[in-house]
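Lecture notes, part 5. Sequence design as translation. It can be helpful to think of inverse folding as translation between two languages: the language of shapes and the language of residues. The source text, in structure tokens, appears below.
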């Protein structure tokens, strides 16, 4: 049954997709017309999603009670629904797309393939909105995969070798993650009989016969969603893709597409594994590794956008820690879940600001190396303030938005430790282990403050070692971005201190919108600026100051020869790159070699058995027609050639007769033709062989399941 809400949702999803080819066609005639059209579509999408958010905030009756269906799509249909969280994140995504599109006009002024960029910009917007409005895993999967493939074009936009390599990594992670996710959907549908989130939330799926299959399905889905979110150890695409992608695309890759992965993880947590200590422990461990590894990589990086990309990995780790804590806190999950939701929103908006600021640097300097862009921000007060708001927000400084969400997650850890010590909850981990997690959390916050200080000092305080370059940078004041770009950056940056200054109104209101989706119970108002919470933030900032002073300024900066100036150096060992160390050798060498050897073994197994039987059981002798080399046809051809050669020698070449072994020559030709035919046959049969193996395993699985009632 359609109503206004259903129409708005479907317009938000499909309007950008339908507009994408139109923008391409307009761009063939008018570049300015295309830019204006893209601004209009993204702005209209933001308006539509904003209307839904207002309706949710005002409590319009029945707005979040219906599932809207588009039947017959791939046999199962597409299903959309609405609640506070979906309205919130659809609005955040649309806002970020609108700001990025406004900024793209100036950023892409001298780029090639701009029509292609805008085409896939709008396609990805529609796919992303489809993910956030989805009501079942099937709809989520379809739009999730569409989003992955359309956003790939962003990564390879400039078509340079490093971009194509990063794009290959991004695509490989997306494809493998999508295939594993699809297997999880198959397992889940087989076990539960439904893929609708609302139905799954009402079932007890973690006990009984289906428990093992549900866990297998959950782990497969976690793999797929975690790959897109950038969780360890599937984070490898972020540090590669972000530096080569255009800055507006990097803002969306970091701020929104990673949150589409977190959306899936939140659904798994709230529906399949609600209040599961085992699931919470798993997510917590993944979060801790993601949080600390991303922060260390960011600290060692000397590339502006790579640092921000590694920072995104770390901040995803903070969110995962909050999600994991929700499973360990038993009934008191609201603190952790609200903190995770708020940090998702905060990180999205912060990275929009920081990546667009990085885009301003790149479009003026065409460099990202910290030594090359050093001092660019001096005498540019607007860019200085914009970047500073993002840096303070992500570092968790009080009065900025990041402080609020990190405080809630930290409080959830402290609450868990307190309840364990009081014996109020049976801890999945020990209290001492959770104390270690708390210190790692605070240390990771300190690393965040250290690498953001490194970027801010490099851009806005230090001078470039080349005086001529510094004079060039200083002369750009007032001419480094146009008014539309300045509006996009300023409009995005002003939200960050506003959210931090009014947490009881803005941040609590945002968290309340996601309360139903996360199945979190109501909780008392948090005193965000209490002495205990301020002490936690201060501890992280002290860590950050020490790390910056003793590691960044001493270890990660070295004096140049014949100069008193220090330059930034990269000391991270290249051999520790997980992609080159593990994934590429595994996928390109080890697995192909292993499967190749297996296929060769299976291919030659029948011949081996026949030969063994002939030598042992049958003990047959060589038959008269079995020749030492060649076959009957090559022998007959050789006899004919020898006969004609003899005639030639008798009548034409009496003085210089020709003698050649045609038996051996034709046998070699026959062997060469046979080998070529065998190679072609084996290549064609390889796919059939794998299909047969998969079919046999599937039949065996169904037989065992039917016989034993699994």
């Amino acid at each position: 049954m359609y109503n206004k809400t259903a129409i708005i949702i479907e317009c938000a999803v499909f309007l950008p997709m339908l507009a994408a080819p139109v923008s391409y066609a307009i761009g063939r005639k008018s570049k300015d017309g295309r830019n204006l059209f893209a601004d209009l579509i993204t702005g209209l999408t933001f308006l539509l999603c904003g209307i839904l958010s207002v309706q949710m905030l005002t409590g319009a009756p029945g707005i979040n009670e219906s599932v809207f269906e588009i039947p017959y799509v791939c046999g199962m249909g597409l299903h959309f629904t609405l609640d506070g969280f979906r309205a919130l994140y659809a609005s955040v995504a649309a806002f970020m797309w609108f700001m990025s599109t406004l900024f793209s006009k100036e950023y892409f002024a001298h780029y090639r393939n701009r029509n292609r960029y805008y085409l896939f910009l709008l396609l990805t917007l529609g796919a992303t909105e489809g993910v956030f409005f989805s009501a079942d895993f099937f709809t989520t999967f379809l739009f999730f995969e569409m989003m992955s493939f359309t956003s790939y074009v962003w990564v390879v936009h400039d078509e340079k070798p490093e971009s194509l390599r990063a794009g290959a990594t991004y695509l490989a992670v997306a494809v493998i993650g999508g295939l594993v996710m699809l297997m999880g959907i198959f397992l889940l549908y087989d076990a539960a009989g439904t893929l609708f989130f609302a139905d799954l939330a009402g079932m007890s799926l973690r006990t009984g016969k289906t428990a093992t299959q549900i866990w297998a399905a959950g782990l497969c889905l976690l793999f797929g969603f975690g790959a897109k979110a950038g969780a360890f150890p599937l984070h490898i695409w972020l540090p590669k893709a972000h530096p080569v992608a255009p800055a507006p695309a990097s803002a969306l890759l970091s701020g929104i597409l990673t949150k589409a992965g977190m959306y899936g993880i939140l659904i798994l947590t709230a529906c399949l594994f609600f209040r599961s200590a085992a699931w919470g422990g798993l997510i917590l461990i993944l979060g801790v590794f993601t949080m600390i590894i991303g922060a260390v990589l960011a600290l060692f990086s000397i590339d502006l956008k790579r640092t921000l990309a590694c920072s995104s990995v770390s901040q995803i780790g903070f969110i995962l820690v909050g999600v994991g804590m929700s499973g360990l806190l038993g009934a008191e999950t609201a603190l952790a879940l609200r903190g995770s939701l708020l940090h998702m929103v905060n990180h999205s908006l912060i990275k929009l600001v920081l990546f667009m600021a990085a885009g301003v640097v790149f479009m003026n300097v065409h460099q990202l190396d910290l030594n090359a862009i050093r001092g660019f921000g001096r005498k540019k007060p607007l860019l200085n303030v914009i970047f500073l708001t993002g840096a303070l927000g992500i570092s968790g400084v009080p009065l900025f938005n990041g402080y609020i969400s990190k405080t809630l997650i930290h409080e959830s850890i402290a609450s868990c430790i307190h309840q364990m010590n009081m014996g109020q909850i049976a801890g999945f981990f020990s209290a001492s282990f959770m104390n270690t997690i708390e210190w790692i959390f605070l240390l990771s916050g300190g690393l965040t403050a250290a690498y953001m200080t490194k970027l801010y000092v490099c851009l806005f305080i230090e001078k470039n070692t080349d005086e001529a370059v510094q004079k060039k940078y200083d002369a750009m004041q007032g001419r480094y971005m146009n008014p539309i770009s300045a509006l996009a950056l300023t409009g995005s940056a002003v939200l960050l201190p506003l959210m931090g200054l009014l947490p009881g109104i803005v941040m609590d209101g945002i968290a309340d919108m996601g309360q139903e989706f996360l199945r979190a119970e109501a909780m008392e108002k948090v005193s965000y600026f209490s002495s205990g919470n301020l002490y936690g933030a201060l501890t992280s900032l002290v860590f950050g100051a020490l790390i910056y002073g003793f590691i960044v300024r001493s270890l990660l900066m070295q004096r140049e020869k014949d100069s008193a100036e220090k330059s930034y150096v990269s000391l991270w060992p290249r051999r520790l790159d997980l992609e080159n160390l593990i994934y590429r050798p595994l996928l390109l060498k080890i697995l192909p070699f292993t499967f190749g050897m297996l296929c060769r073994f299976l291919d030659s197994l029948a011949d081996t058995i026949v030969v063994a039987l002939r030598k042992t059981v049958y003990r047959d002798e060589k038959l008269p027609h079995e020749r030492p080399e060649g076959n009957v046809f090559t022998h007959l051809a050789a006899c004919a050639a020898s006969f004609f050669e003899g005639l030639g020698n008798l009548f034409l070449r009496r003085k210089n007769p020709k003698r050649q072994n045609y038996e051996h020559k034709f046998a070699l030709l026959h062997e060469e033709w046979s080998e070529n035919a065998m190679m072609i046959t084996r290549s064609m049969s390889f796919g059939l062989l794998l299909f047969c193996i998969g079919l046999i395993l599937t039949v065996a699985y169904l037989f065992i399941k039917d016989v034993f009632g699994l």
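The translated text above is only one of many valid answers, since several sequences can fold into similar shapes. Confidence is low (pLDDT under 50) at residues 621-626.
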